[in-house]
Model the fold of this input.
Amino acid sequence: MVTNKKPLPDYSKRRDRLLRGLRSQGAKNLLITSPYNVSYLTGFTGEDSFLWITPKEVVLLSDARYEEQIQSEVKDVELLIRTPSTTIVDAAANALALRDQAEIWVEAASTSVAQWERLGSQLSNKTLASCSGAVERLREIKDAYELNAIQDSIRIAERAFKATTELLEPEMSEKQIADELEFAMRRLGAESAAFKIIVGVGERSALPHGRPSNKPLRDSSFVLIDWGAKKNGYLSDLTRVVLTDKPPAKLEKMYRAVLQAQMDAIAAIKPGVLMSHIDAVARKALEKAGLEKRFTHGLGHSFGLEIHESVRLGKGQERPLEAGMVVTVEPGVYVPGFGGVRIEDDILVTDSGNQVLTSLAKQWEEVLVA
Ligand code: ZN
Ligand code: ZN
Done:
């Protein structure tokens, strides 16, 4: 029998892995305050909710607005609904005051100082301990469900990009292109764009995070587009430079150097290789073209539920890559007043090397759409 069922997320397995990781750090519990981590461990996609986890209990603290959603999304988790007049922090403090743990571990990165102080004053007979990165480390290794979701997100982003580039007209502005692209992704089933889409015409492509303006395509011969989709909570992240007219020779030189740096870096990706090494490989390729000083950001980042997760391909990142990580590889060179080139693809680290999950054309000869 042939089945092509999509893999399902196994939240209890994720929670077991978390508890094992916590135990190795000497932690016996955790109050999870990051909405992404709550979602990763329960399937709940709402906000304003905390998760309390110990080897004996898993409690989702939420409010009445989400009750129905939780019932349909979450299984095997105790639910504690706070009253509208109780803040999420006070509800957590009230619930934890009744527990016998003397030490309460709290996710530090997603808890504000004010929340931390309030929790501490409400739980004066307990000690608060800060925990960072425990769930984020689990999220570095994508399971079958997550890989499938990321691939769906990539497919939507790529199909929408192709549809949008077919519509390009000289009069279209950066903002119109970004709007068209986002709408195309939504039509194809995305919840939204993964982040604010970047569209930079001509010299505006030298701004790595430029927001779309009213500048029209006809002002230049090239445009940089950095976009991604959000589908079932999972993101994708790509960048392409599109040629809309005959571009200057200088752009071709930059483009070929960036593409070579990207392909060299991708070829170096496999388990056990240091993250900093992949970045260095790209820099070395750009050095040969005399452009390394124009590469002003890190080479890539992991993503999934969030667009920038904890893996960074950059200087000083002395950790090895592991199978199951999904990272972007996005070298870029930027010349103020002229323009920038960035090429970004999404790569899965596999047991034997890597798999490029994105498939949009990127050879110089292939990026002319006019
Ligand atoms: Zn991007
Ligand atoms: Zn990126």
User: Anything to note?
Assistant: The chain has a mean pLDDT of 95. The chain has two domains: 11-139, 141-366.
